[in-house]
Amino acid sequence: MRVPERILGIETSCDETAAAVVEDGHVVRSNVVHSQIELHQRFRGVVPEIASRSHTERILPIVTRALAEAELSPADLTAVAVTHRPGMVGCLLVGMAAAKALAWRFDKPLVGVDHVQAHVHTGLIAEPDMPLPALCLVASGGHTALYLLHEPGRSERLGTTRDDAAGEALDKGASLLGLPYPGGPSIQAAAATGDRDAYKLPRTLLDKESLDFSFSGLKTALLYTLQPQGAPPRKSPPSPEEIADLAASYQEAVVDVLITKLRRAAERHPVRSLCIGGGVAKNERLRARLASDGRLNRLRLVLPPLSLCADNGAMIAGLAAIALRKGETSPLDLDAVATPQSGGKTKPRRRVRR
Ligand code: KG4
Ligand code: ZN
Q1: Which residues contact 229 (CB under 8 A, 6 or more apart)?
Q2: Total Cβ atoms within 10 A of residue 311
Q3: Distance 278 CA to ligand 2 centre (A)
Q4: Fewer Cβ atoms within 10 A, N terminus or C terminus of the chain?
Q5: 34 near 108, Cβ under 8 Å?
């Protein structure tokens, strides 16, 4: 009888301590995530030292739970996968130490995985038969980029953000509006009762050809909408109705830019599917716009479940399955690397300067 391939995926690159077991590259047997949002909320961003300390406390219980929920022991695993780039090095090292210890103790192959590439490949966990090539949008707090996924394990970056990531723009916008961190979900909630046409906010599309993103001007426009330059300071904070309208208009501007760039990329490249990943891929308005877009919904739309969009261990195990099929494993002295595989620079993710 064939023994299924079972990979444990560990993720600690930012503020989620996560572990999951994935069978045969797409059957998610367990997917355990502990979010540190409460620890970082008052700083409105991730504090690296607090994040790595919390990972250290949580990693073993989280891995133990992922194995228990999958009803497996470490000896049953085919391999141990772990995010080794990009991310905050102190955070990456915690997950890597756990993964290396398990791999060494139980004599399993270790597979180091690129976190951004794991987001790019998430569509293949949700739909293993997703027709390729696929256009993939990765939008989170640290990254916003478009990729062409040619085949499993081979992708090409088409464009990336020149300043803020989409999630970062939502986090900063929420902060200006006095809404809680993280900004994406709180702007989405506030926008539910707002009018998205109430305020005219800019859509920065760069030049006509560009598939890059820029969100910093939008944040500044919101600031000046709240407090016009040269005007006397506001006497009272915006009303709940104003906040709802501002949130809806702001969210619409972010979504409009993402949709416009996806359309541009889909026109230029002969893709068969469109998939999304990263925390911003959880956004209801983005999902609704994709589903109703006459040009984009002609492609096979793969909108993974929310549990696979934000940072998680299942996507790490999923990409490791592809690497293993090609015989790619990592040495036990694998290094943690701050930047992504493509060599692109990573903005420090919402790091709080103190
Ligand atoms: O992928 P993720 O969990 O971590 C990073 O790699 O950054 O993404 C976190 C980001 C945050 O900026 C958060 O505001 C955003 O994803 N986010 C959302 C939603 N849920 C989380 N943005 C828009 N709509 C949401 N529902
Ligand atoms: Zn991520």
Answers
A1: none
A2: 26
A3: 5
A4: N
A5: no
Q: Which residues contact 190 (CB under 8 A, 6 or more apart)?
A: 177, 179, 243, 244, 247, 248
Proximal ligand: closest to the CA of 83: 2
- Taking residue 208's Cβ as centre, other Cβ atoms within 10 Å add up to 6
CA distances from 165 to 95, 142, 218 (A): 24, 6, 12
CB 103 within 8 A of CB 81: no
CA distance 350 to 120: 21
List domains and CATH numbers for the chain. 6-121+309-325 (3.30.420.40), 132-305 (3.30.420.40)
* Encoded tokens for 288: 């609704």
pLDDT of residue 232: 85
Report pTM: 0.94
Q: What six digits make up the tokens of 124?
A: 């293949």
Each residue's pLDDT tens digit, 135-188? 999 999 989 999 999 999 999 999 999 999 999 999 999 999 999 999 999 999
CA gap 6, 263 in Å, rounded: 37
Q: Choose which residue among 170, 276, 349 to substitute to test ligand 1 binding: the one with the highest number of ligand atoms within 8 A of its C-beta.
A: 170
Q: Which residues line ligand 1 (CB under 6 A)?
A: 14, 140-142, 167, 170-171, 182-185, 188, 278-280, 282-283, 310-311, 349
**Radius of gyration (C-alpha) of the chain in whole angstroms:** 20
Q: Which residues 6+ apart lie within 8 Å of 3 measured at CB?
A: none
